């Protein structure tokens, strides 16, 4: 091989000499600045020796290593002669080849230099992206805190939209991670007849306990006669005795094997339809015995699937080393992994990161020592929500702070590109004029448009609706069950565990593609009345009733639908829940009270109750109650409560107790409420609301008044959203209902929440108005989403 040394006053001139002499396929060995210019060492791939690099050079090959005349034009000679004093005597003249080292050492140096150059270029591009996108810096820092690796984050964040705001960027990252996280499709895909499954991994990761949990699942599915347990762990004292105890409890046989011959003998005794679970001795990823264990399982005489057990408590570098060692141990390919001890881990990101990078589908996660209950089968979305839970994002000692990243980024500041700056200025001038110009000739500024996009990204209701809107536009609207489960987790994350959450249930008529029916839905609000997310949605037409769990021919009664929704939303709620609905029979209210459920029913003034053992209607029962004025901030999240903004009413509320009675049943104590809106100018009564509630509901007038108005507001918001159900589309009705419910909630919040007033103003101007009216909220929301897409591209 011939090495050529080139010298030029600048790097461009030296590279030009390389291309002229060796062509565009030249291999650059080194590039360094020397006194007076730049020196490049390069070689031509065609001059590589044909013999093996490790073999000694033969005499016949010696002539090929002799110097050859340069092919550069003679016109370059004067340029080299300009710097004669800067050349070492041993150096060849520019444009001439000089002999260099050969064989494996030289190829290794070339490979190292090439890898170093590629790494350096990648780092420069990555640093440039971080400087251009401040949100990428924040997101990079946050995901590092959650335990994800820099390698994964670099690969992912290169595709992040540059205009994304903080919450929008985190939501985008979550969706990307969910999309790439491999998980087992269903448990049925694992538990096939004749399955032979072995758990492998380092010591102490919980393999034996996990085998016992898997065995319990198998026995529950197919009975004890379908399972055989095997252990190869004869090193730890009492290890196989522990598995035998589990086997006795499950009434399944347990075999202990020490070598491949015993393994084959045991497997030959197992029926082909029986499941075989193999517990192995824990082996360090650096132990040479890891290859022997792989050979033992590969030579068992039956195909043995292997699952790697990853300890969620371990550091990310340790998990990476474990996965790399077991994936390359020479045995059968790993089928996937099980993540253990997530209850002990402060961060789950490292384990999920390893599963993504090594493409190991997660089959189960273990969250405790109890057998068999502490083994969970979770979806990719559920795993990622656990990994990104806010409680886990506390102070960490192993991730850079904002000050650290700012200091690193400030070390090199790129020069601003004049063309790019001019294009940005042009966009800042023309885009607002195009979108928000009015007949008066004024327009909003670019900073106001960007602020509006940032506000919708920061708001959970609007950002979740945006994700559904974008998914539907791409023809990939998620199934109702999946979307509702995610929205419910979002709602739970926005609740204060010390205060009760609020779930509003509504029911209204539906006209879907010429067919009439009913739409029943729920939405979550926090204790202050701020909307969090839509939840369970159901819809019924003449041909059947549609729910997230499937469709049925006959529609259940309204009471049964409401009870099902209340049970669903109460289950796994992180705090106490107050359920608010319209009307309801006395039988329903008795049922809810018997369950110790907190319920509030907006009622007719003619509802029959008993006061002091005397029957009367609800409007008469509240007359003797003591009314009290409500604080001006009682309805703070609402710009216009019950459509009475122009009147600016004074609010008065009263609470008392009464009874419900029916033949053959004991009297049911209830609370009764009345809310009045009064014109402060003349004392005229503008509107009155009545409600009854179970005794479990605290008599807090402010909270009850808020709940009553939110029920009415939610009903109105979804009434405005019903046209979304009638749009042309092929999505199932219940999938469309979830989309419409979240969009309706987002549009209502855009028009009502004072915190979103800047975004509402931008939406109104894009509609040609100065103020966003409630009836325009849906159109304004769609305009904002289109603006977000425009600024992101």
From TrEMBL:
Major place of residence: membrane
Gene3D superfamilies: Flagellar FlhF biosynthesis protein, N domain, P-loop containing nucleotide triphosphate hydrolases
PANTHER family: FLAGELLAR BIOSYNTHESIS PROTEIN FLHF, SIGNAL RECOGNITION PARTICLE RECEPTOR SUBUNIT ALPHA
Organism classification: Bacteria, Pseudomonadati, Pseudomonadota, Betaproteobacteria, Burkholderiales
Residue stretches making up the AAA+ ATPase domain: 193-435
Record keyword GTP-binding present: yes
SMART domains: AAA, SRP54
Keywords of this entry: Bacterial flagellum biogenesis, Bacterial flagellum protein export, Cell membrane, Cell projection, Cilium, Flagellum, GTP-binding, Membrane, Nucleotide-binding, Protein transport, Transport
Annotated spans, Disordered: 45-107
Gene from which the chain derives: flhF
UniProt-recorded name of the protein: Flagellar biosynthesis protein FlhF
Coiled-coil stretches noted in the UniProt entry, renumbered to this chain: none
């Amino acid at each position: 091989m011939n090495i050529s040394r080139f010298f030029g006053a600048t790097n461009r001139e030296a590279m030009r000499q390389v291309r002229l002499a060796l062509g565009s396929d030249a291999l650059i060995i080194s590039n360094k600045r020397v006194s007076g210019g730049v020196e490049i060492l390069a070689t031509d791939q065609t001059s590589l020796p044909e013999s093996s690099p490790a073999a000694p050079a033969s005499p016949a090959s010696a002539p090929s290593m002799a110097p050859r005349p340069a092919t550069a034009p003679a016109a370059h000679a004067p340029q080299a002669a300009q710097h004669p004093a800067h050349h070492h005597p041993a150096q060849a003249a520019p444009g001439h080849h000089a002999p260099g080292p050969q064989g494996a050492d030289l190829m290794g140096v070339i490979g190292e230099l090439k890898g170093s150059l590629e790494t350096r270029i990648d780092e420069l591009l990555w640093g440039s992206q971080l400087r251009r996108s401040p949100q990428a810096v924040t997101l990079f820092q946050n995901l590092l805190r959650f335990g994800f690796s820099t390698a994964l984050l670099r690969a992912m964040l290169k595709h992040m939209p540059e205009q994304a705001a903080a919450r929008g960027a985190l939501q985008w990252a979550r969706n990307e991670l969910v999309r790439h996280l491999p998980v087992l499709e269903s448990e049925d895909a694992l538990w096939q007849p004749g399955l032979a499954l072995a758990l492998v991994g380092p010591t102490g990761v919980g393999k034996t306990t996990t085998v016992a949990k898997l065995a319990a699942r198998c026995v529950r599915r197919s009975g004890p006669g379908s399972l055989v347990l095997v252990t190869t762990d004869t090193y730890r004292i009492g290890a196989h005795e522990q598995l035998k105890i589990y086997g006795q409890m499950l009434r399944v046989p347990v075999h202990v094997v020490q070598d491949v011959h015993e393994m084959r003998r045991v497997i030959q005794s197992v029926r082909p339809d029986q499941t075989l679970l193999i517990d192995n001795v824990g082996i360090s990823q650096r132990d040479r015995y890891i290859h022997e264990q792989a050979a033992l399982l590969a030579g068992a005489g039956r195909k043995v699937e292997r699952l790697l057990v990853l300890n969620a408590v371990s550091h990310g570098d340790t998990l990476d080393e474990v996965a790399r060692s077991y994936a390359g141990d020479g045995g059968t390919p790993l089928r996937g992994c099980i993540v253990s001890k997530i209850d002990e881990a402060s961060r789950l990101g490292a384990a999920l990161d390893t599963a993504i990078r090594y493409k190991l589908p997660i089959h189960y996660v273990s969250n405790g020592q109890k057998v068999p209950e502490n083994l969970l089968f979770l979806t990719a979305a559920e795993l990622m929500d656990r990994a990104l839970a806010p409680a886990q994002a506390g102070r960490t000692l192993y991730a850079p702070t904002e000050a650290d990243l700012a200091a690193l980024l400030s070390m090199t500041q790129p020069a601003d590109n004049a063309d790019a700056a001019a294009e940005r200025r042009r966009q800042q001038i023309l885009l607002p004029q195009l979108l928000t110009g009015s007949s008066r000739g004024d327009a909003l500024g670019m900073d106001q448009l960007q602020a509006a996009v940032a506000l919708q990204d920061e708001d959970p209701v609007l950002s979740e609706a945006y994700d559904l809107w974008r998914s539907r536009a791409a023809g990939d609207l998620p199934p109702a069950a999946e979307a509702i489960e995610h929205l419910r987790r979002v709602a739970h994350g926005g609740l204060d565990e010390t205060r009760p959450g609020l779930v509003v249930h509504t029911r209204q008529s539906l006209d879907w593609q010429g067919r009439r029916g009913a739409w029943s839905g729920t939405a979550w609000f926090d204790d202050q009345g701020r909307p969090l997310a839509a939840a369970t949605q159901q819809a019924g037409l003449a041909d059947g009733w549609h729910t997230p769990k499937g469709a049925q021919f006959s529609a259940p009664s309204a009471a049964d639908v409401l009870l099902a929704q209340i049970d669903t939303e109460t289950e796994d709620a992180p705090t106490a829940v107050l359920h608010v609905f319209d009307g309801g029979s006395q039988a329903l209210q008795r049922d809810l009270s018997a369950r110790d459920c907190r319920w509030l029913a907006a009622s007719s003034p003619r509802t029959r109750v008993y006061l002091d053992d005397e029957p009367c209607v609800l409007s008469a029962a509240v007359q003797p109650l003591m009314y009290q004025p409500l604080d001006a901030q009682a309805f703070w999240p609402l710009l216009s409560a019950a459509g009475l903004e122009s009147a600016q009413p004074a609010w008065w509320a009263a609470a008392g107790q009464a009874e419900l009675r029916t033949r053959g049943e004991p009297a049911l104590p209830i609370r009764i409420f009345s809310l009045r809106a009064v014109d402060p100018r003349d004392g005229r009564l503008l509107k009155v609301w009545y409600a009854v509630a179970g005794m479990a509901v605290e008599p807090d007038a402010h909270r009850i008044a808020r709940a009553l108005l939110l029920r009415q507001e939610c009903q109105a918001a979804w009434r405005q959203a019903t046209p979304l159900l009638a749009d042309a589309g092929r999505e199932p009705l219940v999938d469309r209902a979830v989309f419409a419910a979240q969009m309706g909630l987002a549009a209502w919040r855009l028009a009502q929440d004072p915190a979103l007033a800047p975004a509402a103003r931008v939406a109104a101007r894009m509609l040609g108005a100065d103020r966003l009216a409630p009836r325009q909220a849906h159109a304004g929301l769609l305009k904002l989403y289109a603006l977000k897409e425009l600024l992101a591209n």
